[in-house]
Amino acid sequence: MGPGEKASSRDVRLAEELGELAARAGWIVLTGGRDAGVMRAALRGAKRVEGSLTVGVLPGRDPGDASPLADVAIATGMGEARNVVNVLSSDVVVACGTGGPGTASEAALALKAGKPLVLLAPSPEAAAFFPGLGAARVAETAAAAVEIAERERPRRGRPRRRAP
Amino acid sequence: MGPGEKASSRDVRLAEELGELAARAGWIVLTGGRDAGVMRAALRGAKRVEGSLTVGVLPGRDPGDASPLADVAIATGMGEARNVVNVLSSDVVVACGTGGPGTASEAALALKAGKPLVLLAPSPEAAAFFPGLGAARVAETAAAAVEIAERERPRRGRPRRRAP
Amino acid sequence: MGPGEKASSRDVRLAEELGELAARAGWIVLTGGRDAGVMRAALRGAKRVEGSLTVGVLPGRDPGDASPLADVAIATGMGEARNVVNVLSSDVVVACGTGGPGTASEAALALKAGKPLVLLAPSPEAAAFFPGLGAARVAETAAAAVEIAERERPRRGRPRRRAP
Amino acid sequence: MGPGEKASSRDVRLAEELGELAARAGWIVLTGGRDAGVMRAALRGAKRVEGSLTVGVLPGRDPGDASPLADVAIATGMGEARNVVNVLSSDVVVACGTGGPGTASEAALALKAGKPLVLLAPSPEAAAFFPGLGAARVAETAAAAVEIAERERPRRGRPRRRAP
């Protein structure tokens, strides 16, 4: 999860590396679906991996608005309420660039839903705020974020991972 | 789209054939995601096809509730409001078994959203009702439903199909 | 529940009478909130009654889009998914003008949610279709619709009515 | 907006005072609707004022779950996605007790939607975090929160206030 047009170049670089490493580890990579910023970067990283599977969950009504890098486009037509869908559909949530209010809402919703949350290279204010709300972990690199995700992901239930 | 536990054996048979034929034609097969009735049958038919891609959009909060036949599980946590997500995410909606109110709502929402709607082997009452609301077509076989879908699917925009 | 701009003049006349009679009987009158068609007419009828309380649940993001006749404006930002909110928030659903797909979705969602549904002066096709899906009743006049609503409304729980 | 069962006694006291002062100033008081914590306290404060109007927007499907202090109960059936409805329906959002993830999501969603946000007696971490995301103001008393709300509320559009 992360900002679109307002993403910093560092957020974009981190998101692309995260998407690639997550896909290599066999995760389905799900983003907010738009062809911008962290969303596009994470999908682009994931699609470098053969056999990867990517999902974009859009705020708007038109699946055609999804990044072409999303194998599956979900159009919710629900604006920011799609953030809830993103969070509930994920086994682990990584917030990449907590500088924006949309990403902050997803981080908070992840904690509310009891999902493992990783803050990837957060601002000092975000790193001080979210761990007070629930089980938030901080990672400084994409590799560390994926490592935490591997450790924290739910063991029970059907396997949610695909062999890459 | 179609009922879960209350699906008739004919609905289930039709849904399974529809899922298989749609996947063979290169469509992503999206259902309401639960492991029951028409939803499970359409996914099962699709997963018989190598390289197929299946999506389940659930009413509940737990992606683990999805049929294991769904490659991608979307957990909306929004109850019947997920019917809107199903419809908006689809290029063509096929209502299989319009005997239940959930499926009827999806058929109506498809027409409201301007999506092509195919009624597969509908009741006489459904066949008389829906075409008065918008561009609903009736098919008596799964093959005819896929044929209509091929003809009616939006041409513009990025390709939504995958090579099987 | 009923259409906006596409409402017939008969639908509008019936909705206005329904809103007035419902408010007089002490009901809170809830509509889709827009300042058009059946929605506006039902609110207008209700606001003729002193002490009435009206609610508009909007598809869009701006509460300022609500009819000025709605005492309370709820902005969902969820498009047609607000139809689910309308239905769940109601003790009894009256579909006024089932000629449109939006109203048809609300009627189907009402039956799915187990809410009492009254079809007010429906088309013959609607009158033949909906009762096959669940507990739908047909009324030919606004007075008959309110009478059915009084009889069918849930008895348990806190009083949902206000003294007019 | 604020926590339910986990609200501190200070949060509850502040919320009750806020509800009363807001209603006295002519505001409709809208909360998350449940009969607990900050939600109940704000409604209780408001209902001390004659002619006040209170609204509860619930996460669940049953309007009967609303606090009896809510004049209007909206049942969304959408879980935490109802937080989006709360925020969009409000002219000004006051976060009372930002210690919990649900309230934090509402504060973030308010900033994302461009709504004026007042943090009432926030934790130091919240007071450091949210103003970096958008137009968040901090108030240490309920009276100060209402004063900011009066100043920041949208001037355009139809009057959203009722004479008490």
- Tell me the series of helices and strands of chain A, N- to C-terminal: HEHEEHEHEHEH
Strand content of chain A: 5-15%
Query: How confident overall, as mean pLDDT of chain A?
Result: 93
The Rg value of chain A, from CA coordinates, equals 14 Å
As laid out across the biggest beta sheet of chain A, the strand order is 1-2-3
Please outline the major beta sheet of chain A: 3 strands, parallel
Say what oligomer this is: homotetramer
The separation of the N and C termini of chain A measures: 22 Å
Task: Based on Cα principal axes, name the global outline of chain A.
Answer: globular
Structural class of chain A: alpha/beta
Task: Give the fraction of residues assigned to helices of chain A.
Answer: 25-40%
Name the chain pair whose interface involves the most residues.
Answer: A-B, 30 and 30 residues
Number of helices of chain A: 6
Which residues of chain A sit in consecutive blocks of at least 5 with pLDDT less than 50?
A: 157-164
User: How many E-type strands of chain A?
Assistant: 6
